[in-house]
Amino acid sequence: MQTSAASTPGGSAPNEDLYLVSDRWALVLDGITRYPDDGCVHDVPWYVAHLGREIKQRIGSAEVDLRAILDEAVRGVSGAHQSTCDLSNPVTPGATVGLVRRERDRIAWLLLGDCTVAWRYRDGRVEFRSDDRLANLSGTPPVESVGGVRRWPVSYVATVRNREGGYWVADADSRAAAQALTGSIELDGLSDLMVCSDGLTRLVDRYGYTWPELFERVSEVGVAGLIDLVRDHGERDTRFHPEAKRHDDATGVLLRWDQP
Description:
The protein is α+β, with helices and mostly antiparallel strands. The protein contains five helices and twelve strands. The protein has a domain of 179 residues: PPM-type phosphatase domain (Phosphatase 2c, domain 1), CATH 3.60.40.10. The longest helix has 26 residues. The radius of gyration is 18 Å and the shape is globular.
């Protein structure tokens, strides 16, 4: 298995995304932009780094399914700061999650929040899965300026984040792991696979690319080249509100298997 990965912050602030890769698994974490007064003495990169470390310690055990690994990892992070922080705060630091792991002749995957996994077969077919529960919320209120960023008010987030009928992310409540989307892919016939944060999938969601097109491009320019492409589109995009994030942290991991 060959790997290519890259992660770039959206601006001058620290990168709140993270990727980790081994010869059998990969993960992508996308930290949720921090709200003021989130009850935590730690920043989002702290949360993401600790969650990545907790997952890394567990994901190598193929006997434990990915939801259970995420559950235990969230518990581990919560235990590291429950004595100093108010983990009941509705906007406590959190992250979206994308995991893949080889399990014998299959690749298992997990998504929680708006990360995406996409894969291509040797015959050219492409499939993808995204956790689109956030994008499909109905009756959402107008966004407002919160801490200089346009987003939903905390009062609304408290009613939909990690709630039935809302959307799910990794934060302080390990029960969210049970709501993760999971599946598996036969390794036979598989050519390559990508795990991406939503800062990179803007190429599909906002700029009209298809996943087959992205696989062709990533074969030529690598993941870093895809990030350059989304940055170029962001610079030329005239639709952004002045307080919207023109560039998001963008992360992707590409796994490629040799032809037989």
